[in-house]
Design a protein that fits this description.
This protein is mainly α. The chain has 13 helices and no strands. The protein has helices spanning about 5-35, 40-60, 70-95, 100-110, 110-125, 130-150, 155-180, 185, 190-215, 225-250, 255, 260-275, 280-300. Helix 1 runs antiparallel to helix 4. The protein starts with a helix and ends in a 7-residue tail after the last helix. Mean pLDDT is about 85; it is low at about 1-5.
């Protein structure tokens, strides 16, 4: 292989899974809205990761990866499951009960900020000035979107506050899991095995919490709900998370969060079509500012080292 071909091959190894994850996750926000209503949110999260965990371990078995974890691996899987598949998604599902899926996706784009900070603390990656400036611009854009939501319906300001607050808690939980996956501890175990057990352990915690807080399992037998569970469990989780975490391990948590710049664009378009999201100059300026700030932040060189 020539010297020119090697860098191109390395780029494709990042860009192709990155593009797949972006397209899939850009659509999951709107699918989640169909999971809310008859079934309590935590039961929907439980079903999603039960499907995802079984699919991941089945893939591990097909590809002849070890299915067992030692005691340290089990502890890591429990913590990963707690932050990624319990806290993160329970916050997100509940956020979408109060604000549109597109707005949740835009706020979630700020994942870059805690990813970069936690990567600096735990992985030793340095924060460049460009990263800090870009992050501040992105946060200003989200603030404009927030202002647009308040002005659009002042009576529902409490709902907006709650929805954005829940989303930010989801962002912090997801960021913790992202940095865990980029650590040396995670690399000791096959990814499919680790993710499969983390998903199943997360589903067990979700189910326990759901039973305690809402009672016995509730399921919606409508085809649209079942299809949504399968889509979110298989494509939105079992396929996407291994691809995303493989990219994250190669380029670091801050750079991997680049997907959070593109995903909200798709989510906002879908929200406009299916949820009747109403744009204004303020909202458009906020979305553009958030995207520009994140692009500026992600062009910083230091997070990639």
């Amino acid at each position: 292989m020539s010297e020119a071909a090697a860098p191109n091959s390395a780029r494709l190894a990042v860009l192709l899974p990155f593009a797949a994850v972006t397209l899939i996750w850009g659509s999951t926000w709107i699918v989640i809205t169909g999971q809310l209503g008859t079934v309590p949110p935590t039961w929907s999260v439980t079903y999603r990761f039960l499907v995802a965990g079984v699919a991941m371990l089945a893939w591990a078995a097909i590809t002849r990866q070890p299915l067992g974890l030692d005691a340290r691996g089990v502890r890591f899987a429990v913590l990963l499951g707690l932050f990624q598949f319990v806290l993160n998604f329970n916050f997100v599902y509940r956020a979408e009960m109060h604000v549109t899926s597109g707005l949740v996706a835009v706020v979630f784009a700020l994942l870059l900020v805690p990813n970069a900070i936690l990567a600096r603390i735990f992985l030793g990656q340095r924060l460049g000035r460009q990263l800090v400036i870009g992050s501040l611009i992105a946060m200003a854009g989200v603030a404009l979107l927030f202002l647009h939501e308040i002005r659009r319906d002042p009576a529902a300001s409490g709902e907006v506050y709650l929805g954005i607050g829940l989303t930010m808690l989801g962002v912090l939980s997801a960021s913790t899991a992202n940095v865990m996956q980029a650590s040396e501890a995670a690399k000791r175990y096959p990814m499919a095995t680790m993710l499969g057990w983390a998903m199943l352990l997360g589903a067990a915690m979700d189910g326990t919490f759901a039973w305690i807080t809402t009672g016995p399992p509730v399921f919606d037998t409508r085809l649209s709900y079942i299809a949504g569970v399968l889509y979110l469990g298989i494509l939105g989780s079992a396929v996407s998370f291994p691809l995303y975490f493989s990219v994250l391990r190669k380029i670091g948590p801050a750079k991997a969060a680049y997907s959070s710049v593109i995903i909200p664009v798709l989510a906002m378009l879908l929200s406009t079509v299916f949820e009747g999201y109403r744009w204004s100059w303020l909202a458009a300026a906020g979305a553009l500012l958030a995207g520009a700030g994140l692009v500026l932040a992600l062009r910083a060189r230091r997070p990639n080292r």
